[in-house]
UniProtKB/TrEMBL annotation:
Keywords of the record: 4Fe-4S, DNA damage, DNA repair, DNA-binding, Endonuclease, Glycosidase, Hydrolase, Iron, Iron-sulfur, Lyase, Metal-binding, Nuclease
Organism in which the protein naturally occurs: Streptomyces himalayensis subsp. aureolus
Annotated protein name in UniProt: Endonuclease III
Keyword Transport: no
Superkingdom in the source lineage: Bacteria
UniProt xrefs under PROSITE patterns: ENDONUCLEASE_III_1, ENDONUCLEASE_III_2
Record flagged with keyword DNA damage: yes
Family indicated by similarity: Belongs to the Nth/MutY family.
């Protein structure tokens, strides 16, 4: 019985061992499976991580692209006016020659251009002359003083009576001021001008023997006589070269970029340096003629200007040729000139006397 019990115990022990072994085996299998699952998870984890990184990179790239696109749009908006301009307007801005043309003109180029303008004006106005009627230096001196703040035409219509009554400095120096005032009233500022011309007559009588001096330093000492008046007299009565810097002359030489100066003495010096001295007097006449006939102050006739290709200010006035022709004055516009007694080669009509105006 003991043995049987022992046998049964042995069998039971074996069964228990088998059960344990089976359980252990199952545990081992489970452990192996867990290990495989972990390894699989470990393998999948980097893949997921890599996917996440790639997704983040793609998002960053999209943001960068969006920023670039926004920057381009902003730049396009800023540049929009230039891009939206007509092709005819944008083309010159893109061309290299237009940029080069903006560079300062060299001294040599300026001299050449200025002298070419003078030659062109000589062809257009071969008859250019002082537009004051006179027969001697005394008459020219008085007429030039009277021309301040009025036209040469008005002076030419006024001086015949003055010169007839007071032909010499001695006659004018002894005149009744009120009578002189009445004679020159049409020229404006007649009281001040009467003092000037009577003062000139007195100085000529007392200091220069009744003769008009032919030197600049003597002329500018006379009452109401400055450099401009002196050069008019010297250049046209004595043949001494000089530049007459009046309002027309100053306006045109600044438009042509010969100088930026506004002071008459500085303009005279700057322009005089561009030309031989022998050209000064006729240059003055040509420039003044052009200013009075074509290159007006307020509305220059650019479309009818013979020197338009040489003018930096082209386009400031009327550029249409037909409209520009209507702006021309004196002989260029078919009108009478300013002189009652113009030179024989003047192609226009004489000015009418004061009473017939």
């Amino acid at each position: 019985m003991k043995e049987t019990a022992a046998g049964k115990g042995t069998v039971a022990a074996k069964k228990t061992a088998d059960v344990k072994g089976t359980a252990a085996g199952k545990g081992t299998v489970a452990a192996k499976k867990a290990t495989v699952v972990k390894k699989t998870a470990a393998v999948k984890a980097p893949v997921v991580a890599k996917g996440t990184v790639a997704a983040k990179g793609a998002a960053a790239a999209k943001k960068a692209a969006a920023k670039k696109a926004a920057a381009k749009k902003a730049a396009a908006k800023k540049a929009a006016p230039a891009k939206s301009a007509p092709a005819s307007t944008a083309a010159p801005a893109k061309s290299a020659p237009a940029t080069k043309a903006a560079k300062p003109e060299s001294r040599t180029a300026l001299v050449r251009r200025a002298r070419r303008i003078n030659r062109e004006l000589a062809d257009v106005y071969p008859y250019a002359h002082p537009e004051l009627d006179f027969e001697n230096p005394f008459q020219l001196l008085l007429a030039t003083v009277l021309s301040a703040q009025t036209t040469d035409l008005r002076v030419n219509q006024t001086t015949p009576a003055l010169f007839a009554k007071y032909p010499t400095p001695e006659d004018l120096a002894a005149a009744n001021p009120e009578e002189v005032e009445e004679l020159i009233r049409p020229t404006g500022f007649f009281r001040a001008k009467t003092k000037s011309i009577m003062g000139i007559a007195t100085a000529l009588r007392d200091q220069f023997g009744g003769e008009v001096p032919g030197r600049l330093e003597d002329l500018v000492k006379l009452p109401g006589v400055g450099r401009k008046t002196a050069f008019v007299v010297l250049g046209n009565a004595f043949g001494v070269p000089g530049l007459t810097v009046d309002t027309h002359f100053g306006r045109l030489v600044r438009r042509w970029k010969w100088t930026d100066e506004t002071d008459p003495d500085k303009v005279e010096a700057a322009v005089g340096a561009l030309f031989p001295k022998s050209e000064w007097t006729m240059l003055s006449h040509r420039v003044i003629f052009h200013g009075r006939r074509i290159c007006h102050s307020r509305r220059p006739a650019c479309g009818a200007c013979p020197i338009a290709p040489l003018c930096p200010a082209y386009g400031e006035g009327e550029t249409d040729p037909e409209k520009a022709k209507k702006l021309l004055k004196y002989e260029k516009g078919g009108m009478p000139g300013q002189r009652l007694k113009p030179p024989p080669d003047y192609p226009g009509r004489p000015a009418p006397p004061l009473r017939a105006e």
